[in-house]
Amino acid sequence: MDKLKIFAPATVANVSCAFDILGFALDTVGDEMTFTKTTEKLVQITLPENSNLPTDPLKNVAGVVAIEMLKKANADFGVLIEIDKRIKPGSGIGSSAASSAGAAYGVNRLLGDIYDNAELVQFAMLGEALASGVAHADNVAPAIFGGFALVRSYSPLEVIKLNSPNELFCTVIHPQIEVKTEKSRKILKKNILLKDAVEQWGNIAGLISGLYSEDYDLIGRSLQDKIVEPVRSLFIPLFYDVKKSFMDAGALGGGISGSGPSVFALSRGEKQAEKVAEAMRKVYSQTNIDFDIHVSAINSVGIKEI
Amino acid sequence: MDKLKIFAPATVANVSCAFDILGFALDTVGDEMTFTKTTEKLVQITLPENSNLPTDPLKNVAGVVAIEMLKKANADFGVLIEIDKRIKPGSGIGSSAASSAGAAYGVNRLLGDIYDNAELVQFAMLGEALASGVAHADNVAPAIFGGFALVRSYSPLEVIKLNSPNELFCTVIHPQIEVKTEKSRKILKKNILLKDAVEQWGNIAGLISGLYSEDYDLIGRSLQDKIVEPVRSLFIPLFYDVKKSFMDAGALGGGISGSGPSVFALSRGEKQAEKVAEAMRKVYSQTNIDFDIHVSAINSVGIKEI
Question: What is the pTM assigned to this prediction?
Answer without folding.
Answer: 0.96
